[in-house]
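Session log. Operator J.P. requested a structure for one protein chain; no other inputs attached. Running the standard single-chain path with token output.
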Amino acid sequence: MSGSSGDGLEIERKWLLHRLPSRLDDRVGAGDPRMEIWRIRQGYLTTPVAGDLAAIRDRVVSDAEVPTVGRIREIRDRDGAVRYIHTLKHGSGLVRREFERPITGAAFEAAWSETAGRRLEKVRWRIPEGGLLWEIDRFRSPAVVLAEVEAIDREAALGIQPPDWLAACIDREVTNDPEFTNAELAFRSARAGHGSPLEHEGDAG
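Structure written below.
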């Protein structure tokens, strides 16, 4: 998720990290004006089938409409601004179909109760480099760190090489591993019995 909204393809590679990159862990990035730091909580409703994406898009008339399928997300940036996003995705691996729209806080809260047992919380660092936007996610539970990057097409995605500061932290690529989708991590978090909010992050609050 690059931060823009729309209806189209998400072409994204993903890596499992064995640690957080040092430029984030030592909080040097807190003073980098190019870097965004988000605190995110998200939950999953029912899973849409492929044909639902266009149908739901066509039915939406207001950002106050309460989602009933897909993913809902609350994003809080380091300045305290909050926004809410409803996302539908279909497919797996490198290329997926995606539809996103902004929703109101009231619509998010109305749908949130329906995501019990399918929730996660994480801190996300968004780092522009080399014409790409690198996103590093540290999950509260399970204790996982992932890196993601989107590309304009499949060929461009396959040609991407992680920058040195990230490559040093990579355990393996998990683009096609269903164990590391956000939805699966949300289910694993629920099975582990974790549901309380993220502890305060000094560089993400």
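Operator note: The longest strand covers residues 7-17.
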